[in-house]
Design goal:
With 1036 residues, the chain is α/β, with parallel strands linked by helices. Helices cover 40% and strands 9% of the residues. A nine-stranded mixed beta sheet has the order 1-2-4-3-5-6-7-8-9, sandwiched between helices. The chain has a three-stranded antiparallel beta sheet with strand order 16-15-19. Strands 10-11 form a two-stranded antiparallel ribbon. Strand 5, helix 4 and strand 6 form a beta-alpha-beta unit. It starts with 42 loop residues before the first strand and ends with a strand. The relative contact order is 0.09. One of its GO terms (molecular function) is hydrolase activity. Keywords: Ion transport, Membrane, Potassium, Potassium transport, Transmembrane, Transmembrane helix, Transport.
Length: 1036
C-alpha cells in the first residue's frame, strides 16, 4: 500500500547486505538439512510420524515443557516452516519453536511437509491439512485444543495457515472439501505472510498490493525468487489454496491473529491488507511491523540483537494468542516495531522539500532584523515555489538575503530537481547492476555443481545408507536421509521436471538427434542475417529458467489490412540465450499462422512501432512495445539488455541536463552582464539610483529568468528596460528555455546530437533510446507527438497573449509609447512572463481590462500544457486521470481532442475550489479595505489576480499605487499566510497523482508486470539437450 512505502527504507545494517553487518556476524541460508535432536533440559523433544491421506509418513517434531505433567492437558500450537515451498525443514524454526513451547507452556508441533519440485502442489498443503486435522496426533500428545489451538507459520507456512484456516472454518471451495474443525482454531500466526500470487491479485486490491512490484531486490526475498518458487511449486495462481486472499469472506477463521510483517519485504502489503481484512471480519488482530528489515531477517542473521528481539516479540504475542479470553496481548513492543499503522508518518510527497526550504529561508533572512517574520517567511515560500511575489522591495534587502533568494530558487527549480532524481536513479541502478553480477556468479557456480549430500548421523557416530523406500520404519529411514542443500538464490534441479513435448510445426527426422557434448549452433535472426552475421558455434548452456516452460507463438500483423501473409513470432516467457534449435528453425521456416492459434485481439500488439524496434536490435524478436513505452513479452535476457541501455541512457542524460541547466545560467549571466557594461547610460544610471551593482544585476536577472522566479533588483521590474532590444530578446528566451518550453528544447538538443554524431558512435544507442522511450528515463522528456502538441499549445497561447496586448492597448499610452518593433517584443516578453516568470514590461494596473483578464487566465492555465504532457505519457496514471474508460481499449494519447478535454476537466475540478477558497478567506480578512470607497486600488479583482498569480506560481501583480511591491504587501498577516498556502499548493498541482515511471528505481519490474502480455497462441515444443548442432529437419 502506497501509504506504507516508508517502511521499506532499509535499516543501515541491511542496506548493503552483508557489507554493513557487524564483524563476524553469522549469516545462514535456508536449506533442507535434518539434524538429530539437540536435547534441552527443560523441554521434552521427540519426533513421530502422522500419516497423510496418501499414506506418506509426515515427520513431526514436538516440543513440550518438562515441568508439565504427562497427563496434564495443555494448549496446542502447530507451526509450519517457511522456504518458498521448496526448501526449509524442521531446523529452520527449531529455535523459535523451543522458545514458544518453553515460555508459553504449550505443545508445539513442527511439521516437515513434503517440498517441491519433487512433490508439486498440493502435496505440501495436504500434508499440513492432514496433520492439523489429525485427532490421533492430538490424543497422543496430551493436549486440549479447547484451551488453545493455534495454527501458524512463516512465509510459505503462513500461506498454508491462511488457506487452511478458511477450510477449517467451513468456507466452501471446489478445490478441496471444507469441514469445520472441531474444536476450532482459537488463534492464527502469520509471520512474513504471503497470501496471494502476484498475478492473481483481486481487482479490488490491485492498488493496495504494491510492494511485490516495488521491492524487488531486498535481501532474503526478491521478486525473481518469488516467481521461481511459484514455478517450482506448480500451483495455479488463482487457486485459493495458494491465494487465500481471493476467498470472498474471511469471517470466523479464529478469535485472534498475530501478524509480524517486515517493512522491506515484497510481501509486506499482502500481510498489511490481510490483517485489515481479518480485523474487519471480526478477528482480534495484533500487528507488528519491522520497519526497514527484510523478509526472514531473524533466520538469516539469528545472532543480531534485532533478531533476538523479534523472538521476544513472538513469544510475548504468543502468550496472548494462547489465552482463550480477550485478555491484553502483553507488553508493548520495542521502539523499532510499529504496532499501530495509524501513527503519524513522515510526509512522502514533494511538499516537504518546499516547506522545509521555505522555513530555512525564514531562519536565514529574519535574524538581520530588517524584515518582519511573516515577510521573511513569505519571501522563503515565494522563492521556493518560484512565484516571485514580494511584500518588501527586493532592492531593500541586504546582499546576503538577495543571495538566499538567488540560490533557493535554483535548487528548487524543476530542472535541478530532476537532475537530482537522475543522480539517485543512477546510484540505485549501479547497486542493482552489482547485485546482478554477484547473482550471475552464484548462478554459474550452481549450474556447475550437482549439489552436496547430507546424511543423517547414526547414534554411534557412523553414517547409514540411503533408505530404499518410504515404506520402511521411520527409525530406519530417517537415519539414512539424503537431501540437497538449497538456498533462496539457488535452484532445485530435478530431471523429472523436464517434459519432452512434441513440436507444433517443426519435426526433426529420426536419427538426426545430435550427439551430446557438442557445441550448439547459433542461428542468427533475420535482422542479423541481413547484416551478414553467419551461423556460429557457441558454448551455451540452458539455464534453469527454461525448465517447465511452454513456448509462446505470438502472431502480429505488420501488413496492411486485406493481405493474408503474416509474420509469426516465436518466443518464450523468460527465454534465455540458450534457445533451442527447433525454436530457431520454427521462426525461420513458418510463414503462416498456427491453425490452432487464436488471433491476438489486443491493440497493444499492433501498437508497436516498427521504427522503434529497428533501433532496438538488442531485444529478442518476440518483444513488443505498446503505448507509452510499455514492453511486452520480454525475456529474461531482454530485461537485462533493456536495463543496460536504460542505465547508459541515464548516464548520458545526466550529462545533457546538467550542461543544459547550468549552461543556461552561465549563458544568461554572460549576455546580460556583458550587455549592461556597454549599454546606454540611462540603464546604468538607473541601476546606480537603485543602489545595485550592474554586474550583479546581470547575474541576478539571468537567474530570475531561468528559474522563472520573477524577482528583480529594480523596483519597477523590467519597465525601464522595455525598449532595450537585446536584454528583451535574451530574457524572453531564458524565460521560455528555463521552464515553459524546456521539454521541447531538451528533446531538440538530444535529436540534434543524434543527427550530428556519427552513426557508429557509442552515443547513438542511448540517444535513440531517449528519443524513442523518453518517459522511461526522465519526467520532462516526452515522445515526439506530445512534444509537438505541447509546442503548438504554447505557441498559440503566447501568440494570443501578445496579440491581445498589442491590439487592445493600441491607443493606451502605457503601451503605445513604444515604437512598433520594441512594442511587439515587450508584449512577447510580457506574454512569456505570464506563463511562469512574473516579470513585467508594462504597468499592469494601467493596461486594458481585457488584457488583465487574459493574463489572469493565462496564469491559471500556465501549468496545463506541461502537466498534460507529463500525465498523458505516464503509464501509471492511465486510469487515475480518466484518460480511458474503465473497460474499453484506451484511445491513443496523441488524439488532440481527448488529450485536452480529459485533462482540462480533471484539472479544473482539482483547482477551482482551492482558488475560490483562498479568495474567500482574503476577502473576509480584508473586508474593511475592500469596502472603503476611498481606496479604489484595493478591490476584489486585484485580489483575485493576486491569488491566481500565487496559485500559478507566476508572480505578476497589479500592485498598489503607493508602494513598489506586490499587492500582497498591503495584506494582513493572515492574508499573507493564505497567499503562502496558495503558492505551496500551486507548486504541486503539476505533479502526477501516482508515482511516475521516470522517478521509479530500476528493478526486475520489466518482467510480466511491466505490462500484461498480449493475447498469445500456445504451441508445444520439444526440448532438446543443452548442447546441440543443427543437422537436418523437415516440416510436418
Amino acid at each position: 500500500m502506497a501509504e506504507y512505502r516508508h517502511y521499506a527504507i532499509p535499516d543501515e545494517q541491511w542496506e548493503d547486505f552483508p557489507n554493513n553487518l557487524p564483524p563476524d556476524t553469522r549469516v545462514e541460508g535456508m536449506n533442507r538439512e535434518h539434524h538429530l535432536i539437540k536435547p534441552q533440559d527443560d523441554l521434552e523433544i521427540s519426533e513421530f510420524n502422522v500419516s497423510a491421506r496418501d499414506g506418506h509418513p509426515v515427520l513431526i517434531r514436538s516440543y513440550r515443557p518438562s515441568d508439565k505433567k504427562a497427563d496434564e492437558l495443555i494448549p496446542l500450537v502447530i507451526y509450519l516452516h517457511g522456504g518458498g515451498f521448496v526448501t526449509g525443514g524442521l531446523e529452520t524454526d527449531d529455535r523459535s519453536c523451543r522458545a514458544v513451547a518453553l515460555r508459553c507452556g504449550v505443545v508445539v508441533l513442527n511439521v516437515e511437509y513434503r517440498l517441491a519440485p519433487e512433490n508439486k502442489f498440493p502435496i505440501g498443503w495436504q500434508d499440513s491439512y492432514d496433520v492439523a486435522a489429525s485427532p490421533a496426533a492430538q490424543k497422543q500428545l496430551s493436549v486440549d485444543p479447547t484451551k488453545g489451538f493455534i495454527l501458524g507459520g512463516t512465509s510459505a507456512g503462513a500461506n498454508f495457515t491462511a488457506g487452511l484456516s478458511h477450510f477449517f472454518a467451513g468456507h466452501d471451495d471446489p478445490t478441496e472439501s471444507s469441514e469445520k474443525l472441531s474444536p476450532p482454531l482459537t488463534g492464527l500466526m502469520f509471520i512474513a505472510p504471503s497470501v496471494c500470487h502476484p498475478s492473481a491479485r483481486p481487482e479490488q486490491y490491485a492498488e493496495r498490493i504494491l510492494s511485490v512490484d516495488e521491492i524487488t531486490d531486498a535481501p532474503g526475498l526478491t521478486r525473481k525468487s518469488i516467481d521461481y518458487f511459484a514455478a517450482k511449486y506448480g500451483a495455479p495462481p488463482s487457486d485459493r489454496r495458494l491465494s487465500p486472499l481471493r476467498f470472498p469472506s474471511h469471517a470466523g477463521l479464529a478469535q485472534k491473529a498475530l501478524f509480524q510483517v517486515c517493512g522491506w519485504d515484497p510481501r509486506r502489503d499482502e500481510g498489511l491488507l490481510f490483517e485489515q481484512l481479518l480485523k474487519e471480519a471480526g478477528v482480534q488482530t495484533r500487528l507488528l511491523v519491522y520497519s526497514g528489515l527484510p523478509h526472514g531477517f531473524w533466520t538469516t542473521c539469528p545472532d543480531l540483537p534485532v533478531s533476538k528481539a523479534w523472538e521476544e516479540d513472538l513469544v510475548e504475542a504468543e502468550v496472548g494468542l494462547v489465552s482463550w479470553s480477550n485478555s491484553p496481548w502483553g507488553k508493548r513492543p520495542r521502539s523499532y516495531v510499529i504496532e499501530s499503522l495509524n501513527e503519524a508518518r513522515p510526509p512522502n510527497r514533494p511538499d516537504a522539500y518546499i516547506i522545509v526550504l521555505g522555513i530555512l529561508a525564514l531562519i536565514v533572512i529574519y535574524p538581520y532584523g530588517n524584515v518582519p517574520a511573516v515577510d521573511a517567511y513569505f519571501f522563503g515560500v515565494s522563492a521556493t515555489t518560484e512565484s516571485g511575489l514580494n511584500t518588501i522591495d527586493v532592492k531593500a534587502l541586504k546582499t546576503y538575503q538577495q543571495l538566499v533568494l538567488y540560490f533557493i530558487p535554483t535548487v528548487t527549480n524543476i530542472g535541478f530537481v530532476n537532475i537530482i532524481v537522475v543522480v539517485v536513479r543512477l546510484y540505485w541502478f549501479e547497486k542493482r547492476l552489482k547485485q546482478i553480477a554477484v547473482e550471475k556468479d552464484i548462478e554459474a557456480q550452481v549450474q556447475r555443481s550437482s549439489g552436496r549430500r547430507i546424511l543423517g548421523k547414526l547414534a554411534d557416530g557412523g553414517v547409514g545408507e540411503d533408505a530404499s523406500s518410504a515404506g520402511k520404519p521411520r527409525k530406519e529411514s530417517q537415519d539414512h536421509r539424503q537431501e540437497t542443500a538449497i538456498d533462496d538464490n539457488k535452484r532445485v534441479e530435478n530431471a523429472a521436471d523436464a517434459q519432452k513435448i512434441a513440436p507444433a510445426q517443426i519435426v526433426f527426422a529420426e536419427g538426426t538427434r545430435p550427439p551430446r557434448n557438442e557445441k550448439a549452433l547459433r542461428v542468427p535472426s533475420p535482422r542479423e542475417r541481413e547484416r551478414g552475421r553467419p551461423l556460429e558455434e557457441v558454448n551455451d548452456v540452458m539455464s534453469d529458467e527454461d525448465d517447465d516452460k511452454i513456448m509462446r507463438i505470438t502472431t502480429a500483423d505488420y501488413e496492411p489490412t486485406g493481405l493474408t501473409r503474416r509474420r509469426t513470432r516465436v518466443g518464450m516467457s523468460g527465454i534465455t540465450s540458450a534457445t533451442s534449435i527447433e525454436r530457431v528453425a520454427s521462426s525461420m521456416f513458418v510463414l503462416g499462422s498456427d491453425p490452432n492459434a487464436h488471433r491476438p485481439q489486443s491493440r497493444r500488439s499492433g501498437s508497436m512501432s516498427r521504427h522503434s524496434m529497428t533501433r532496438m536490435p538488442y531485444l529478442s524478436r518476440q518483444a513488443t512495445i505498446g503505448r507509452n513505452s510499455r514492453f511486452y513479452n520480454l525475456s529474461a535476457e531482454d530485461r537485462e539488455q533493456l536495463g543496460g541501455i536504460e542505465y547508459r541512457s541515464l548516464k548520458l542524460l545526466l550529462k545533457i541536463v546538467t550542461a543544459y541547466f547550468f549552461g543556461l545560467h552561465i549563458f544568461g549571466a554572460i549576455c546580460l552582464a556583458g550587455w549592461i557594461q556597454t549599454a546606454d547610460s540611462k540603464y546604468r544610471d538607473y541601476l546606480a539610483e537603485c543602489g545595485q551593482d550592474k554586474t550583479w544585476w546581470g547575474i541576478y536577472s539571468a537567474q530570475t529568468m531561468v528559474n522563472n522566479l520573477g524577482y528583480t533588483l529594480t523596483p519597477d521590474s523590467m519597465i525601464t528596460f522595455q525598449d532595450a532590444t537585446f536584454p528583451m530578446l535574451v530574457m524572453t528566451f531564458l524565460a521560455f528555455a528555463g521552464n515553459t518550453i524546456y521539454p521541447c528544447l531538451l528533446r531538440l538538443l538530444i535529436w540534434t546530437m543524434a543527427k550530428l554524431l556519427p552513426r557508429n558512435s557509442s552515443m547513438q544507442e542511448p540517444l535513440n533510446f531517449l528519443l524513442d522511450h523518453p518517459r522511461r528515463c526522465y519526467t520532462l522528456l516526452f515522445p515526439s507527438r506530445p512534444t509537438w502538441i505541447l509546442f503548438g499549445i504554447l505557441f498559440v497561447m503566447n501568440f494570443v497573449d501578445t496579440l491581445l496586448i498589442v491590439v487592445l492597448d493600441l491607443h493606451n499610452p502605457a503601451v503605445n509609447n513604444l515604437p512598433g518593433g520594441p512594442r511587439v517584443l515587450a508584449a512577447l516578453f510580457q506574454a512569456a512572463s505570464s506563463r511562469h516568470t512574473g516579470t513585467a514590461t508594462f504597468n499592469l494596473a494601467n493596461v486594458h481590462p481585457g488584457v488583465q483578464f487574459s493574463l489572469l487566465v493565462m496564469m491559471y492555465v500556465s501549468v496545463f500544457p506541461i502537466a498534460i504532457a507529463v500525465r498523458s505519457s505516464n503509464t501509471y496514471e492511465e486510469r487515475s486521470l480518466g484518460v480511458y474508460a474503465p473497460d474499453p481499449e484506451p484511445e491513443d494519447s496523441t488524439s488532440a481532442v481527448s488529450y485536452l478535454r480529459n485533462h482540462l476537466q480533471n484539472q479544473l475540478s482539482f483547482d477551482l475550489w482551492y482558488v475560490f477558497l483562498g479568495i474567500f478567506c482574503i476577502t473576509i480578512a480584508e473586508a474593511d479595505r475592500i469596502m472603503d470607497q476611498a481606496d479604489p486600488a484595493f478591490q476584489v479583482f486585484p485580489i483575485f489576480f493576486e491569488v491566481v498569480s500565487a496559485y500559478g506560481n507566476v508572480g505578476l501583480s497589479l500592485g498598489y499605487p503607493t508602494v513598489l511591491t506586490s499587492l500582497s504587501g498591503q495584506f494582513t498577516t493572515f492574508s499573507k499566510l493564505v497567499i503562502c498556502a496558495m503558492m505551496i499548493r500551486g507548486r504541486h498541482r503539476g505533479l502526477p497523482y501516482a508515482l511516475d515511471r521516470a522517478i521509479q528505481l530500476p528493478a526486475d519490474v520489466l518482467s510480466e508486470h511491466d505490462g500484461k502480455s498480449v493475447s498469445v497462441a500456445w504451441s508445444e515444443v520439444e526440448k532438446i539437450d543443452e548442447k546441440a548442432n543443427l543437422k537436418r529437419a523437415h516440416t510436418s
